[in-house]
Amino acid sequence: MIITVANQKGGVGKTTTAINLAAAVANKRFKTLLIDLDPQSNSTMSYVDPRSVSRSMFDVLVSEELSFKDVIIPTAVPNLFLAPSKIALAKLESKLIGEIDGPFRLKDKIKDAADAYDYIFIDTPPTLGMITVNALVASTHVLVPIQSSYFALEGTDDLLETIEKIKARPNPNLQLLGVVITMHDKRTTLARDIHEQIGEVFGDRLFNTIITKSIRLEESPAYKESIFTFAPKSSGAMEYYSLSEEILSRV
Ligand SMILES: Nc1ncnc2c1ncn2[C@@H]1O[C@H](COP(=O)(O)OP(=O)(O)O)[C@@H](O)[C@H]1O
Ligand SMILES: [Mg+2]
Question: Whose CA is nearest to atom 13 of ligand 1?
Fold first, then answer.
């Protein structure tokens, strides 16, 4: 089960969702791998000191010899492992464009690791470029966080079109796992309208769990902890736990 968290908009909760879902699944004693494919390395920084990272996903994806196993490191969360990113990953786009196997690098490399893990989560950058395409080509599922805002649905057409194109040719197995609303503010009527609107577009693909705004979710990465140890009783912990249950029932 390889789940890419994607949305080409920045700041919609991709990283927050990837790091906490991966932890929720690892807490259920599934061996879990979190792959950070964003050059900004926010997922990596949420669990380890980036200065301790010597090799990153960039090295795996550009090198013939290096295997996934050479970059995976443990995290403080039992059963959760990390394939870290470094800023060097930003150079990957230009390196892979023009290579015949450009979109397939991750898929080819992930074979070395896939069997060793029950679940793999991939965090992606805020673009629909070569890095995100690599993630979608290598995945079984895509999970789309949508920020509860007036512009929530803007851009989702492009994302869905990209998913359809990848399903049509390089990866017919890719499935839209679902759409999750993030940073929701229950108190506003606007938020309720947005919820309704997203529901109309995505139907049963919209998860029942809604991730509400929570300062705890913002704070936990600074302490290199998932929400489940940082603030186990917070709304964020309960909501990401409930989202993980919904996901496990869908896959
Ligand atoms: N439910 C939430 N409540 C409050 N802040 C959140 C929530 N989800 C994410 N954030 C914060 O919003 C910012 C953007 O989220 P992030 O997960 O980094 O988005 P992306 O990876 O899509 O760019 C971060 O500072 C993050 O801590
Ligand atoms: Mg991010």
Answer: 11
